[in-house]
Each structure stands twice: as C-alpha cells, then as structure tokens.
Amino acid sequence: MTNPVYQILENYMLSCMGDSAHDKEHIYRVLYSALEIAREEQDVDYDVLICSCLLHDIGRKEQFENPSLCHARVGSEKAYRFLMEQGFEESFAAKVRHCILTHRYRNNNVPETVEARILFDADKLDVTGAIGIARTLFYKGQLSEPLYNVDDQGRVQDGTSDTSPSFFQEYKYKLENIYSHFFTKKGAELAQARRQAAVSYYEDLLEEVRPMYEKGRRELAERGIGGQ
User: Fold this and answer.
1) pLDDT over threshold 70, residue 105
2) Which of 21, 37, 89, 208 lies at a 20 to 30 A Cα distance from 149?
3) 220, 226 in Cβ contact below 8 A?
C-alpha cells in the first residue's frame, strides 16, 4: 500500500468518525494491535488488513442514529461502495467488506479469512483491560445509561441478572466474557495480559457503592425515614 492510498482511506475514515467511544484513536489502536497480531500469522494480505482496520467502524453513525441497524453490515457496504468508486479491484473491495461485516462481537457472521480474524481480535482487544472499561463508560454515558441498577430493596445489582442496561450489566454480559472469544493466539495472549485491570476496576467499584447503599439505608431507617 502506498502512502497516497493510505491517506485516501484515512481521510474517508476521519470523515465518518463522531463517536467518542469509537473515535479515530480507537481506529488507530485497532490498526496497531492488528499489525502486532499479524506478525505471528501466515499469509496475511496487509493491504486488505490495513484497509479493513481503517474502515471497520464507518457505519457507527448510522447505527447510533438508528439502533436497529448493524454498524458492521452498514459499514461493510459503505466500504465496498467507497472502494469501488475509488477504483479498487472488486476482489479487494469484497475482501474488505467481509472483514468489516464479520468484526462485530454480537454477530453471527464468522470471520473466514486470516485478515478478518485478525481484525476481529484487534477490535475485541480494545474492549479488554483498562481501555475497555474506559470506552464502555464513555459509550454508556452517551446513551444516558447508569453505572448500576438498584433493586426494590435498595440493593445495588452487580449486573449478573439485570434486565435494564447499565455499566455493570455490560461488564457481566460482555466485558467479563470476552477473553474466550479470540481467534488468534497472539490476540488471546494480549487480552489475558490486560484482564486483571478490568476485573479490579469492576470489583473495586462494586465494593465502593454496595456497602454505601446498605449503610445509608440502614441509617435512614434508624431515623425513621425512607429512601435510597
């Protein structure tokens, strides 16, 4: 890939970014992680990989505006059309489309090429560890969702059986379980190295808020008043 081609792809990516949890720095982290993972894989088409990494989240705006849409599906078609308009070969555009279509965690489309598997792992790596916690908090804030939910008895829920969205629910549903969802050996190794940072944050936050509610409600009851 030449630098002018890279600049065309990068500029198009930048024109599509507007989500703080999926901003241009997320794109660069995914790209850099993908390059690290690719060093231990065989027969990688780096042009396909780099292009797919740069364009993998260009459908986020459409999904944010209409949650019924899948950003991976929207983005894969946007990327395909863009690449064809720019004069790329159809076979190249189709490979990039597959990579983008299959990169989403909540998606039944399985990555079938080495480039698609690397992109999948690099993108999931950005949901692990401390950076994964930070990005999740950003995203939950954008959606005006709470850190945690409280049941009818005023007890802070840990996210395990929550039916309403929250940071704790997202942690138990996705962040805690993502470490077994990697296709490459290197991706799994990098994720495991970050895991404890996420576990510690979740456990520390739960330990800070849960006793606070228990003690606070007990003291209010002793004063003959109610509330949370």
Assistant:
1) no
2) 21
3) yes
